[in-house]
Amino acid sequence: MELKALEKTNLSPIVVNAKRITTLLVIMFVAMMFLPWQQTTKGVGKIIAYEPTHREHNVIAPISGFIKKYYIEENRFVKKGELLFEMVDLDKEYLVKLESVIGDIKAQHENIQSTLNISLARKKNIEANLRISLEIYDKEIIQIQETLKRFNGKKVSLQNSYEVSDANYKRINLLYLDGIESKRSYEVAKNEYIKEGVEVENIIIDIEIKSKSLEIIKKEKERYIKEQENEINLLQNSILSDKNRLITFEKEIKKTSIDLSRNVTSKVFASKDGYPLRILKNDTNLYVKKGEPVIYFAPEAKRRVLLLKIRRIDMPLIKEGLQARVQFHGWPSMQVSGWPKIKYGTFSGIIDKIDSIAYEDGVFYAYIVEDPKEPWPTSEILKVGTEARAWVRLSTVSIGYEIWRTHHAQPPVMVIENYR
């Protein structure tokens, strides 16, 4: 009986086991507080082509008119250079009219060019003749100047001889009057005196004639130069006018030729490999204006990137080179945010670049490229436009710190290291 009473004072095995389990749970909970936890920030986005030139765009109408024929089907792959569609102009005679206008302008251009060539040749001839004539005038002037120089020298000599003859004549005349010299000597001296005087007068006249000739030639030279310069100036003005007209005609030819080439190129070809997703003008009877979209075209993306939308509050935490886990919509997956190694159906990515400024309403975008060590599904499976969710991996902290941070609404720890 005493043993049974003592047994009743002992704790129930259930209580003992509960105490042990509670203690174990507390120990496990405390231990878990020190386990590492990978901080992350998440965002949503979609797959786009990495190169901007390989993203979707509208194929526009090169001319105004009607769609003559489509050579493609929606969502059928086309190669670069394949014919997409062909257009016809509303005015079927428009091209003929343009060609006629170009022909007329070219004819006028040729006429002006011919006139310009004639003017240039004429100017060249006038300039050549002017040089030759000036050389002739200069030679004549030099010859007259040399003649004048010679005449002036002769004049001095004759004047000296005349002065000697005059003195001799006066001396003999006095002697003749006194009866000392004979009449013959007197007449000889007189004739010599008269002769020398005539020669002096003649040389003076010759000098005056040559001087007047020199003045006349100089005036003729000046007049000739002015006439030729005036003619050259007129030709120069005509040449400048013709050149300006040629430039105007060339601009008109270029402008009209561009218009013609644009209208001639009514066939539109694929600029890249890709898919014509939508035919926007599905009725060939619809009038399409130049520049209107006709086909929505998606080039084949050689390299893909996830365009991830990031809240501006998380933007400072995102760095180029950080690792990320990507979950594509439609892929069964499991991902524990804090433990990246616990994953299924998600793929690795790397932050390639981040927008420098907010793109819209305070939203930033980050570009996540696939990790070469863990490639994404092929483009046949993972198509451009597929939506996705991504967790960008930040710093590793303890679970206890993460619980405290979450409870107190503190931001994650910013990654300082550069992973590039």
UniProtKB/TrEMBL annotation:
Keywords: Coiled coil, Membrane, Transmembrane, Transmembrane helix
Transmembrane residue ranges: 21-37
Entry superkingdom: Bacteria
Coiled coil segments of this chain: 211-245
UniProt protein name: HlyD family efflux transporter periplasmic adaptor subunit
Species of origin: Candidatus Sulfurimonas baltica
Lineage: Bacteria, Pseudomonadati, Campylobacterota, Epsilonproteobacteria, Campylobacterales
